[in-house]
């Protein structure tokens, strides 16, 4: 059943003829919009390239803590003393358990920070990749292939109703 709808801004008009949707951009080109599938495949390729260029990465967070050693003669035992530290740690979930690793030097802290930053980039890129792939899957047409002999022989469900008991 054909129908048409004019949006509030008057820029796009959607025509529905049978089951096909044709989008016309009346302001820019005046004709049908190009097929978005090749553009999405290009975006997906770019995302794969960006993922392959990532450096070392790992999930986790870095925390710092100051501690008191417990020795009564140490400076940390005095009131208002900040204690020993800061001591930096990398905390991660591994196989469902929290694992903490001490970071002994500022170099180790910088290395862990860069790896965590790369992991966050990885998460962002994979999220975008999933979104693009979802769009590609929805736009890609279903290929009609010939059924095999076995598929043709497969029993089809009967349309006959069973007699009531």
Largest sheet: 3 strands, antiparallel
Number of helices, where a helix is a run of at least 4 consecutive DSSP H or I residues = 3
Q: Tell me the total number of β-strands.
A: 6
What characteristic shape results from the CA principal axes? elongated
In angstroms, what is the radius of gyration?
31 Å
- Strand adjacency order, main sheet: 1-2-3
Structural class: alpha+beta
Order of helices and strands: EEEHEEEHH
Mean pLDDT: 80
pLDDT < 50 runs, ≥5 residues? 1-27
Please give the share of residues in helix.
25-40%
How much β-strand is present in the residues? Answer: 15-25%
Number of domains: 2
Quote the distance from N terminus to C terminus: 43 Å
Secondary structure elements and pairings:
Elements: E1 3-6, E2 12-17, E3 20-25, H1 36-52, E4 61-67, E5 84-94, E6 97-103, H2 106-139, H3 149-153
Helix pairs in contact: 1-2
Protein traits:
165 residues, alpha+beta, three-stranded antiparallel beta sheet, 34% helix, 25% strand, elongated, disordered N terminus
Brief overview, please?
By secondary structure, the chain is an alpha+beta fold. The protein is built from 3 helices and 6 strands, in the order E-E-E-H-E-E-E-H-H. The protein has 2 domains: 1-33, no CATH class; 35-68 and 82-139, no CATH class.
């Amino acid at each position: 059943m054909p129908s048409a709808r004019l949006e509030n801004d008057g820029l796009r008009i959607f025509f529905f003829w049978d089951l096909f949707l044709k989008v016309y951009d009346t302001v820019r080109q005046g004709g049908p919009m190009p097929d978005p599938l090749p553009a999405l495949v290009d975006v997906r390729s770019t995302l794969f390239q960006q993922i392959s260029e990532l450096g070392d990465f790992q999930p986790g967070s870095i925390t710092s803590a100051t501690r008191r050693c417990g020795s009564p003669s140490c400076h940390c035992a005095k009131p208002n003393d900040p204690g020993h530290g800061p001591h930096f740690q990398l905390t991660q979930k591994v196989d469902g358990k929290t694992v903490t690793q001490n970071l002994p030097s500022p170099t180790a802290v910088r290395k862990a920070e860069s790896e965590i930053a790369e992991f966050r980039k990885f998460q962002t890129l994979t999220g975008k990749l999933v979104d693009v792939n979802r769009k590609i899957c929805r736009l890609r047409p279903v290929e009609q292939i010939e059924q095999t002999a076995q598929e043709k022989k497969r029993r089809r469900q009967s349309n006959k109703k069973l007699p009531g008991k």
